[in-house]
């Protein structure tokens, strides 16, 4: 066997061993195990609070999304289609096995976007113009009517949607982690590392996902203002 063939054989063997290692590697997010007291007043629920269906910019219908959420063993999921003025999918809200599915919405306000959860009236969502006027008033009200729901700033630092100015009193929260924004930031920071992570995903999805996550320091700092 020539030296080139021997080198190629060892190289392929090394790659195979490395792929097997990655496939079975289970990364820990925390360095120490989390211990819970015997009596707890807090409970952990797994869910997704920002999801688009095929009614806006997503690729799957709500039934497909519900099935995927059940397969992922989520406890709840919110459908937040973009600028869905009439909430046409509201009839899909309900219980799917062990999954709670809520229908909310994401709306364009000024140069930013807001998630509006648990509103029982759509008066402030009837059109693009009404949203601009309604959100301007509602976000300045610390104690607004409960039927208008909860307002959360989405993509707070994403170019094109970045929030400028002070945090209004009526803003109930901000989106700390958005996976789409995370991978876009990773792509801009290091395309080589991003491509490696993409190749890693079919082998070890958990490890690939953790590689994409970054501490949302800037997002939290914005909320602390």
Q: Can you give a write-up of this model?
A:
The chain is of the alpha/beta class and 225 residues long. It contains seven helices and eight strands, in the order H-E-H-E-E-E-E-E-H-E-E-H-H-H-H. The chain has a four-stranded mixed sheet with strand order 1-2-4-3. Strands 5-6-7-8 form a four-stranded mixed sheet. Strand 3 and strand 4 (99-103) form a beta hairpin. The longest helix has 22 residues, at 3-24. The chain is elongated and about 80 Å long.
Overall radius of gyration:
22 Å
Order of helices and strands: HEHEEEEEHEEHHHH
Using the alpha-carbon principal axes, give the shape: elongated
Please report which band the strand proportion falls in: under 5%, 5-15%, 15-25%, 25-35%, 35-45% or over 45%: 15-25%
- The portion of residues assigned to helices is 25-40%
Quaternary structure of the protein = single chain
Q: How many angstroms does the end-to-end distance come to?
A: 67 Å
Mean pLDDT: 83
């Amino acid at each position: 066997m020539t030296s080139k063939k021997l080198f190629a054989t060892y190289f392929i063997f090394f790659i195979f061993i490395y792929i097997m290692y990655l496939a079975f590697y289970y990364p820990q997010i925390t360095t120490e195990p989390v211990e819970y007291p015997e009596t707890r007043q807090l409970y952990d629920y797994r869910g997704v609070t920002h999801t688009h269906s095929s009614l806006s910019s997503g690729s799957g219908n709500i039934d497909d999304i519900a099935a995927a959420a059940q397969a992922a063993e989520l406890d709840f999921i919110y459908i937040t289609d973009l600028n869905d003025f009439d909430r046409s999918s509201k009839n899909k809200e309900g219980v799917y096995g062990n999954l709670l599915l809520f229908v909310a919405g994401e709306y364009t306000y000024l140069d930013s976007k807001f998630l509006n959860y648990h509103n029982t009236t759509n008066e402030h969502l009837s059109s693009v113009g009404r949203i601009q006027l309604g959100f301007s008033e509602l976000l300045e009200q610390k104690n607004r009517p409960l039927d208008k729901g909860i307002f959360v700033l989405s993509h707070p630092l994403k170019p094109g949607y970045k929030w400028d100015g002070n945090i209004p009193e009526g803003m109930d929260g901000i989106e700390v982690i958005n996976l789409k924004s995370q991978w876009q930031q990773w792509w801009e920071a290091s395309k080589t590392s991003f491509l490696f992570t993409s190749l890693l995903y079919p082998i070890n999805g958990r490890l690939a996902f953790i590689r994409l996550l970054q501490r949302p320091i800037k997002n939290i700092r914005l909320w602390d203002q």
